UniProtKB/TrEMBL annotation:
Alphabetized InterPro entries for the sequence: Bacterial_rp_domain (IPR044060)
Compositionally biased intervals (Polar residues): 64-82, 601-613
Protein name: Cell surface protein
Keyword Transmembrane among record annotations: yes
Positions of the Bacterial repeat domain: 302-371, 376-445, 451-518, 531-597
Length: 919
């Protein structure tokens, strides 16, 4: 009996050991497989240090560089020393240069408004150094060209020379256009040249409308229901913000919209699609529309934001009786989310939640509260001075802003909304309840005088250098042996034959050429002129050119005109930007004919934010030509030539023209002064970039510099609302934090936007990204919590909701995936900090829980990458997987040893039992 009991115990133990071994083996396989799956699913590079966190990278393709950096090198233009034979001699024609932004457009501005300077750079794209010179043609002296302080006009291969353009908005209303032609100072024939065009339209200071935006951009409705639309009108100078509402596409007159934007769809409406239109009351050229889809549904859930600019909302729409819908809200810059309200009732404080069991129409409002105000500060030129840094203050708070000028500059004024705010260099803003954008304007009090010699090595000069504003400048010259002085040239025009060139009061940078010629050389006359109004030829009139010499003519159309043709010695050579007579050996004539550019048909404003601009009929007055205005680009009175131009075009032939340099008009892309002007936020319009060029930049991955400017202007905006961070709200516009939550949001946004969306942004159409990271430990649903708690080896500490909303044209959507992975940094809440813990993030996306491991060594944060957005939790490794595997192996071994012992005992018992039976 005792032996039987012993055998049964061994059998039971053996069975248990085998079960334990089998279960442990299965569990070991499961744990190992899951861990291996996590490792396999992770990217190869899991190191935070190796992760690319460069926020803004410059485009690698130099052909599309739109940055503005200082040139290198220094040149002493005032040296009287004759050239040394030991100096390296370069072929004066062996050079190349370019400008990547040759078309600068101020767009529409208003009289006496302050506008920012425009910048561009001339780049030495050749392999030899050369000094830059330029001619400028500004008939109305509307613009002032300045070389960036500290920049040299001597270029090395690959170097850039930055220039500034300052516009004068005090001029009469009209269209203004100026041309700047850059070439080597060693190459008076201009074998290589770059033309930069600047355009501007000035309007009278009167109310104006920029755009209309209707909210939402699309909605689904059932028949027999009503819906409230809203519209935002942007403009200035006391404009009318009202709109007129209308509806089209309806098949019954019972479907109407009232003056408040409430659409009432008739129950017997048979149309499936309607269009609701909001038209500006002040300017009917500006409107926007929303598409209404009529569906056979029971109820409509409408969501809206209060105030409209307080945040982004998404969700709602048509729903069946008893159904549910998810709604989401995220505050914009300097707002906080207060909760979801239905009437006066607070129904939820969660930014995203499910509205369930819907049995009637619901109107839910996301209320936002202004918490802080963003004070954006800037300077009109970084060389001019400094200003108090941009910052965020509490709504209703005060701040003092101070500006300080740098050497060579003087503080002029503080400007806001293009208007002078104060002329004191320190101002205090009290009770600030809205965002402010303040610019400190500095003016130069020192100017540069640049002098060059043509032809090379024929003479020298003195007087070049830097002068205080308003000072008298005297430039002197001295011809080398065998040469004589031939005149002072400014912008291709001889302005004086005096031995000294005197500027009574210097007001801008000057570029002067001292011209020399051989003594007792044979000369020829070259006569130039225009056949009709609409432009200029420079120089104009009768000029004497020495035998073997050269003379260059610039053909400059006025605003809204283009060059029709150029006639050389009676031969029509077609439209040209310039023509150079080289190796002159006989008399020549050259005339230019212009024609009015046909105005493009007006376009109504749409949600892209572009302006429709009426053509200006009033002609602007030319600046009276004098020695002083010549220094500012004014064009002299033109020689009018009465002749009939041959309509047929032909080529010049013969030895007399073989050396001439002819620049066709098509080779100068900036002659379209009548281009359609877009809104002031259009980066494409600012730099004269067309749709094809921008798309080529995007396809070459070279658009980041342009997108960076979109962030700076606020056209592209990212708002991060992170309840775990010290700064619960972070923005991309002008302000960034020492410890941001999202390290690489710029590259992720770029990867997420489509090509069409990037073009839309660069044309001035705003796109906003609202990122919400909200602790929802108190409200997370039980199923999500249970799913994360069952993750082997990990213990959730707190839960958070992570979602991204993209808003465009009055419509918002919640993104579940981005084009690339975000690098996110979350502080560990103090309540969950404990020495020795290995933190991580668990992500529940569509029912699959992934482990996002910590990528840095900071014990106070958890850093992870993700491109999927749903429910998350901060967790720590409760049981190390390797230790767990070791424990399971030990259990299996112990179970197997016990099983072996039991098996041996059973075998011995059975053997003994057989012997007993034999006896």
């Amino acid at each position: 009996m005792k032996n039987n009991f012993f055998a049964r115990v061994n059998a039971i133990v053996l069975a248990l050991c085998l079960v334990i071994s089998a279960v442990s083996t299965i569990q070991l396989h499961y744990v190992y497989a899951k861990e291996n799956e996590e490792i396999t699913n992770d990217d190869e590079d899991t190191s935070f240090d190796d992760y690319d966190i460069e926020i803004m990278s410059e485009p690698e393709n130099d052909n599309y560089d739109v940055t503005f950096t200082s040139g290198d090198g220094n040149q002493d233009y005032s040296s009287d020393n004759e050239p040394s034979n030991e100096e390296i001699q370069y072929d004066p024609f062996d050079y190349d240069l370019t400008c990547y932004t040759p078309n600068l457009n101020y767009g529409i501005v208003y009289q006496n408004d302050y506008i920012d300077i425009q910048k561009f750079s001339i780049v030495n794209t050749g392999e030899t150094p050369f000094p830059i010179t330029w001619d400028e043609y500004d008939p109305s002296t509307a613009f002032d060209l300045e070389v960036a302080p500290g920049a040299s006009l001597d270029t090395n291969p690959g170097s850039q020379i930055p220039f500034y353009i300052v516009a004068d908005t005090s001029l009469p209303a009209g269209d203004y256009c100026a041309y700047y032609v850059f070439y080597s100072a060693n190459d008076i024939r201009q074998h290589h040249r770059v033309q930069v065009t600047v355009t501007m339209t000035i309007k009278k200071n009167e109310p104006y409308v920029e755009s209309v935006e209707i909210i939402p951009a699309t909605v689904s409705l059932p028949c027999g229901k009503s819906y409230q639309f809203s519209a935002k009108v942007k403009g200035g100078n006391g404009y009318n913000q009202g709109v007129s509402w209308s509806v089209t596409g309806n098949n019954t007159t019972k479907t109407t919209i009232n003056s408040d934007g409430v659409l009432s769809v008739s129950a017997d409406e048979t149309s499936t699609t309607l269009a609701v239109i909001a038209t500006s009351k002040q300017d009917t050229r500006f409107y926007d529309s929303s598409i209404v889809n009529l569906q056979p549904v029971d109820h409509i859930v409408s969501v809206s934001a209060d105030p409209v600019g307080g945040g982004a909302v998404a969700g709602g729409g048509a729903v069946r009786n008893g159904g549910s819908v998810r709604i989401s809200a995220s505050p914009n810059n300097n707002f906080s989310f207060s909760g979801w309200y239905e009437g006066s009732n607070l129904i939820s404080t969660a930014p995203a939640f499910d509205l369930t069991n819907i049995t009637s129409d619901r109107k839910v409002v996301a209320k936002f509260t202004r918490t802080t105000c963003y004070i954006k500060t800037s300077v009109n030129t970084t060389d001019g001075g400094t200003i108090t840094d941009s910052c965020v203050i509490q709504s209703g708070g005060n701040i003092t802003i101070t500006a300080k000028a740098k050497e060579g500059y003087a503080f002029k004024e503080f400007v806001e909304n293009n208007k002078t705010l104060s002329t004191s260099n320190s101002i205090q803003l009290n009770n600030v309840t809205s965002d402010r954008n303040i610019t400190a304007v500095f003016t130069r009090n020192k100017y540069n005088v640049y002098v060059s010699v043509t032809p090379q090595d024929t003479g020298t000069y003195e007087g070049a250098g830097k002068y205080d504003k308003g000072k008298k400048v005297v430039i002197k010259q001295r011809a080398y042996d065998g040469y004589e002085f031939a005149g002072w040239i400014v912008n291709g025009q001889v302005v004086s034959y005096n031995t000294e060139y005197v500027i009574d009061k210097i007001e801008n940078d000057l570029n002067i050429t001292a011209s020399f010629r051989k003594r007792e050389v044979k000369t020829y006359k070259v006569v130039s002129g225009i056949t009709n109004e609409g432009g200029s030829i420079v120089p104009s009139g009768e000029y004497t050119v020495q035998e073997g010499g050269s003379i260059t003519y610039q053909i400059v159309p006025s605003a809204n005109y283009t060059v029709k043709n150029v006639t050389v010695d009676g031969k029509n050579i077609g439209p040209a930007a310039s023509y150079t007579f080289n190796q002159v050996g006989k008399a020549h004539t050259i005339t230019a004919t212009f024609e009015k550019v046909q105005a493009a048909p007006q376009k109504n404003s749409s949600s892209t934010g572009q302006q429709a601009v009426a053509p200006q009929k009033k002609e602007t007055k030319k600046t009276e030509y004098s020695t002083e205005t010549a220094n500012q680009g004014a064009v002299p009175e033109q020689n009018i030539v009465k002749e009939e131009t041959k309509q047929e075009e032909g080529e010049l032939d013969g030895e007399d023209y073989i050396e001439d340099t002819f620049v066709p008009l098509d080779d100068t892309p900036a002659n379209n002064a009548n281009n359609e002007l877009a809104s002031n936020n259009s980066i494409m319009a600012k730099y004269g970039l067309d749709d094809a060029t921008v798309r080529r930049l995007i396809n070459d991955n070279a658009e980041m510099a342009l997108l960076k400017e979109a962030y700076e202007t606020g056209v592209l905006q990212v708002t991060v609302n992170n309840s775990f961070a010290a700064y619960t709200q972070e923005t991309s516009q002008g302000l960034y934090f020492d410890n941001p939550s999202l390290i690489n949001f710029e590259t992720v946004v770029s990867a997420t936007l489509t090509e069409d969306e990037k073009v839309s942004v660069l044309s001035g159409n705003p796109i906003l990204f609202n990122v919400s990271i909200t602790d929802n430990s108190a409200t997370v649903d039980a199923a999500t919590k249970k799913l994360m708690q069952t993750k082997i080896g990990y213990k959730p500490l707190c839960y958070f909701d992570f979602f991204i909303m993209k808003s465009e044209n009055g419509s918002s959507e919640v993104l579940t995936k981005t084009g690339s992975e975000l690098l996110v940094v979350l502080p560990i809440p103090d309540a969950y900090k404990k020495s020795g813990r290995n933190y991580c993030v668990l992500r529940n996306h569509n029912g699959v829980v992934d482990i996002l491991r910590d990528l840095d060594d900071d014990p106070d944060t958890v850093t992870f990458r993700t491109d999927k957005f749903s429910e998350y939790s901060i967790a720590y490794e409760a049981v190390n997987v390797n230790k767990l595997v070791l424990q399971l192996i030990i259990v299996i071994l112990i179970a197997l040893v016990l099983a072996l012992i039991c098996y041996i005992n059973l075998w011995r018992y059975r053997r003994m039992h057989r012997k007993t039976n034999r006896k």
